[in-house]
Amino acid sequence: MKIAVTYENGNIFQHFGRTENFKVYDVENNQVVSSEVMGSNGTGHGALAGLLAEHGIDVLICGGIGGGAQAALAQAGVELVAGAQGDADQAVEAYLKGELVSTGANCDHHHGEDHSCGDHGCGDHGCGHHDEDHSCGEGCGSGCGGGCGSQPAITGRNVGKTCRAHYRGTFNDGTQFDSSYDRGEPLEFVCGAGQMIRGFDAAVAEMEVGQVVDVHLMPEEAYGMPDPNAVLTFEITQLPGSENLTVGQQVYLSNQYGQPFPVKVTAKDDVHITLDANHEMAGKELNFRIELVEVK
Q1: Superfamily of chain region 2-96
Q2: Cα–Cα distance measured from residue 17 to residue 69, given in angstroms and rounded to the nearest whole number
Q3: Can you tell me the distance from the alpha carbon of 82 to that of 64, in angstroms, rounded to the nearest whole number?
Q4: How far is it between the farthest Cα atoms of the chain?
């Protein structure tokens, strides 16, 4: 079985007709055995259904989708799971466990790529402690780079190729937030496939092996600007376990599909707790020194 997910920066892209990439998962015995990112070639709603059928896709997981596209997918024999959001890999895992339910056609002409978390709750999993460091880690590949909107495709000699690069990331005051040099291993990624934040991808797209460049990225080229709709306030009684949380702590909530997403406690009193689901790098200017080590 093959599962395709509308894909951008590790997450489920929220508008089927505008997606530039799909992440395709090969599944055997209900387990993912391999995955790859493929481009949509700029095709629109109807043609995208044909593209998926041509590649033998059995299931599509996406965010927003209109009735016309849903009909085209049904005609192409592709099962649709719509209304999903968050991490693409986690969505596929949830689907394979039978925990991902489609909302059907949910996109009209007012639909945008709004990643607000207004409908998210702790779900059945309650509020779990989360101690991981949300630094850029995997080369800043896990954010909603470029503000999560539809942008022109990145072009360059290295687009579509597997690249290995060393990098050091700093804030404007010179503080280092991440470095592949410190880990002793270059980062490997497919340039332009949405695995990296947009500004990083764009910088590598035209580099030559051995070249070192310094780039300064505005928030729109990195993790976007903070979304006020992603700041959530609940009554403590609504979130089992939240009475033990403290301001500044990072925890996981789970959405209506059981998919976890990280939030940070920003305020708390005897009755209410406020959680921020924005990426911690949202709104920040970032600086990178990038050294291209290899292009495959």
Answers
A1: Dinitrogenase iron-molybdenum cofactor biosynthesis domain (3.30.420.130)
A2: 8
A3: 7
A4: 57
Q: Is 234 a catalytic site residue? A: yes
* Residue 236 appears among annotated catalytic residues: no
Could you give the residue range(s) of every CATH 3.30.420.130 domain in the chain?
A: 2-96
Distance CA 279, CA 46 (A): 33
**Known catalytic residue: 22?**
no
- What residue spans in the chain does CATH classification 3.10.50.40 cover? 117-296
**Annotated catalytic residue, options 89, 234, 252, 261:** 234
Return the pLDDT at 259: 53
CATH 3.10.50.40 describes domain 117-296: yes
Catalytic residue among 7, 25, 167, 288: 167
- Predicted model pTM: 0.50
List pLDDT tens digits, range 66-82: 767 777 888 888 998 88
177 labelled catalytic: yes
Q: Does the active-site annotation cover 7? A: no
Dihedral sign for Cα 247, 248, 251, 253, please: positive
> From CA 94, how far away is CA 107, in angstroms rounded?
22
Amino acid at 159: V
Question: Which residue in 95, 177, 189, 257 is the catalytic one?
Answer: 177
